[in-house]
Amino acid sequence: MPRACDDHAVANLQVKNLPDALHERLRKYAQAQHRTISDIVLEAIRREMDRYEWRAKLAQRPASDLGDSAASLLEQERTPSMLP
Q1: For the chain, which has fewer Cβ within 10 Å, the N-terminal or C-terminal residue?
Q2: Where are the domains of the chain?
Q3: What's 67's DSSP letter?
Q4: Contact at 8 Å (CB) between 26 and 40?
Q5: Nearest alpha carbon to residue 45 among 21, 22, 13, 16
Q6: What pLDDT digit, counting tens, does each position of 59-74 carry?
């Protein structure tokens, strides 16, 4: 085994029960992007994890009171004015 393989650990992930139609779409997409299926899947997993972590961080922030709710402001804008 090459020495480079010992320098860092890399986990493997197997996806079971992947529908044939989805696999074919993924294969065609990867081919069109000149990338491997693994590249595409890793990017999608990273993007989803980033979203998850961003939402978790956002949920920890205190709520902001901006006064009127967005729904209330929209309703005010949609209500015809009584002024001539």
Answers
A1: C
A2: 18-59
A3: S
A4: yes
A5: 13
A6: 998 887 778 888 888 8
Per the structure block, which two tokens stand in for 67? 């006064």
Interior/surface letters 43-54, b for 16+ CB within 10 angstroms, e for the rest: eeeeeeeeeeee
Give pTM, 2 decimals: 0.62
Q: Could you give the CA distance from residue 71 to residue 77 in angstroms, rounded to a whole number?
A: 10
**CA distances (Å), origin 35, targets 39, 40, 44, 47:** 6, 7, 13, 17
pLDDT at position 49: 97
